[in-house]
Amino acid sequence: MRGKPVEIEDSLRRAAAAQRIALERLLAPFEITPAQFAVLEVVVASPGISSAEAARLERLTAATMSVIVGNLERRGAIVRRPHPRSARIQCLEPTDLGLEIRESALASVQMLRARMRVAMPIDVASEIFAWLSRVAEIEV
């Protein structure tokens, strides 16, 4: 059994890298990065979400989230609004342009997701999803 953890780690790293590269290429025509698209997806799904909560959902640092939000805001894809009860909290909302970008890119992203699902052996799909969910919850 020696060597198996490294093989799993290497396989997971290679799969993640392949998915990231494919997603970067798919999103390039829309002039949006995978991280920006992920944040935009969260904001579209939960208008008014705080920047901090969106960062937690996407497992981004505050500094990274600040850059992503700044870029999306400059592009006109989202707006920041002060929270009704706390001026320190910034709430994020998609703009019409943000909704349009997300909708335009979504078909390409869904095709990639479908290709990834097809590559998964159906008889172990639920176990793979469960394992990936547990891996995603590991804290350092």
Mean pLDDT metric: 91
Unreliable runs: none
Q: Pairing-aware structural class of the strands and helices?
A: mainly alpha
The share of residues in extended strands comes to 5-15%
Helical content (DSSP H or I, runs of 4+):
55-70%
CATH architecture: Orthogonal Bundle
In the CATH scheme, the class would be Mainly Alpha
Largest sheet: 3 strands, antiparallel
What's the number of domains? 1
- The CATH homologous superfamily is called Winged helix-like DNA-binding domain superfamily/Winged helix DNA-binding domain
Q: Main sheet: which strands, in order across?
A: 1-3-2
Q: Count every helix, treating DSSP H or I runs of 4 or more residues as helices.
A: 6
Distance between the termini: 25 Å
If you compute it from the alpha carbons, what radius of gyration comes out, rounded to the nearest whole angstrom? 17 Å
Report the strand count.
Answer: 3
CATH-defined topology? Arc Repressor Mutant, subunit A
Write down the overall geometry: globular
Order of secondary-structure elements: HHEHHEEHH
